[in-house]
Amino acid sequence: MNYLVLVNKNNKIPSNWSNQIQLIDIKNLDGEIIKIEKETLEKYNELKKAATKIGIEIGINDAYRSIKEQEKTYKQLEEEKGLEYAQLYVAAAGYSEHHTGLAIDIGLRQNGQIIEENEEGTVKLQIYEKLHPLLADYGFILRYPKEKEEITGYKYEPWHIRYIHDIKKAHIIMDNNITLEEYLN
User: 36, 87, 91, 126: which one has the fewest Cβ atoms less than 10 Å from its Cβ?
Assistant: First the structure.
């Protein structure tokens, strides 16, 4: 399986992708059943334990989304916030990393309670920034880093992480503050 698959505004999910991944059901922070790629979940659980050791409670808000779910998410945000906003924060159906099963939207908890985010996702930003240095040790990268909007096409999302499997490559990306696009080019 190609854990470095590039899905973005210009690269659609490969048509045979669903044949390459093993999705499993889990409960997200809200108790809803969602899907995630098997190895991604295993490594996420290791990351979660490491985060706990430094006083950070994390959970999964979202992971895999089907094309239909992505269409619904996009349309809902467009109706609520407008087209321009939707284009900055949500991929069009077929062009979302969430279709891979390798992307995770992390949620934070404090004292067992979910910490709600504001529109910019900056509530408890310092907690996310404390978590980011742990990502590469478990094969994850921060997918939409600060000041990389022109490359990724999306605003900074401190909660959106992506599993790429290879710890060495994850460290190259994270340690050099580059995007997956930059690494692959």
Answer: 126
Name the strand (E) or helix (H) holding 118: none
CA distances, 113 to each of 30, 58, 59, 133 (Å):
11, 11, 11, 24
Indicate the number of domains in the chain: 1
Could you tell me if 117 and 159 are in contact, meaning their C-beta atoms sit under 8 angstroms apart? yes
Residues catalogued as catalytic: 157
Angle between helices 38-53 and 125-135 (to 10 degrees): 120
Range of the domain at 50: 17-184
CATH code (residue 116)? 3.30.1380.10
- For residue 34 the two structure tokens come to 């969602």
3-state secondary structure of 36: strand
- State if pTM tops 0.70: yes
The string of pLDDT tens digits covering residues 137-158 is 999 999 999 999 999 999 899 9
